Structure prediction request, 445 residues.
Amino acid sequence: MDSNNCFHCGDDCGKKAIVLDDKKFCCNGCKTVYEIFSGNDLDYYYDIQSAAGATPKTLDGRYDFLDSTPIAEKLIEFNDGDLQIINLYIPHIHCSSCIWVLENLNKLNPSIKSGQVDFPKKTVRITYSSATISLKEVVLLLARIGYEPYISLDDFDNKKKTVDRSLIYKLGVAGFAFGNVMFLSFPDYFELSSSDASGGEFWLNKYEPVFRWLMFLFSLPVIFYAGRDYFISAYKGLHSKILNIDVPIALGILVLFIRSTLEITFDWGSGFFDSLTGLVFFLLLGKFFQQKTYSFLSFERDYKSYFPIAITRISKEGKEETTQVHDIKRGDRLLIRNEELIPVDGILINGQARIDYSFVTGESEPVTKESGEKVFAGGKQLQGAIEMGALKSVSQSYLTQLWGNSIFQEDKASKFQTLTDSIGRRFTIAVLSIAFLSAVFWNLL
Prediction:
């Protein structure tokens, strides 16, 4: 790493670097995080990966809404009065250093009992004592060390996402059967069972039929459970007069099974059960990775995934109070702090607004607004705090109406399947034609 780069985050320190313990820092935030880690024997954080941290942002009361008991109760997963568990999404999790420090939060605050990181989902599950530390203090601690959690309106709704594990079960069954069939096929691979019935291969010759019927039994759950979706899909396609991609797959699996069963029944050979179980296993493995990739790239979320849970409202007496986004009404006076998202359409009252509308329009250039001009929901304030008057509720704002557009309601999975089927139809015709011509050619020889 360059000697002029920040020891904590790796950014260029410029001409005014802050030096502490012979280390350079780009800002006081990075220096403070280093002091927190070094003062609590967490220096190993930098040994795992250099410049692993992120510059902490100024908070300015951003998480005051967590002091509200109704809001906190919606976010907390478990609460028995003293012990509470919260699952937070941390966008900055990116390396082993992040995992290590988040699972050692108890060294920063003894009231935190444990932290468990789910790296693929970038979440941390924190168990803490609510008698000595509040949810807001836990979140502020994470933000101070550069791991600010992202809490949205979607988290507040607390909807349980159903997880379909059927593909994992089928993959496990196919993998188990494939491994055992391969093991039972070793005598055929090395031609041990076909040698003279003498010496060390006698027992292989004696129990050869047993091995073959065991391979048959292992193939049954692969055919009737792990691979049944291919048969169902092929049947539905043919019933609808569509040659989808699963037709040749189902036909190949069926032919392999029937041919192998006939071979062991009439003692023609050992069959192709290893190829059969291996084919289904690798097909399901590819389907599993496809499902994971599609899930990771999916944009099937609504505006709740991006909107904050609560906002600061200014009462008629001029006092600041935390209110839930759903409770914002026309005429309410709202305080939008730096880096906060504008939740509703409104009129700018006080402050210099510099708003990033890239989330709404895709335009990355910030827009400057003066007092009396209209601002729209979905923009992010980038410069200080502003005051605005709400013109609409969240459900009536421009962003919500935009998200409700029919283009976002299309079933993307169905469109993907339609494209696959259109390609699969031509592929199926080509494969079946080649197979038929090959069979005719070899039979005529």
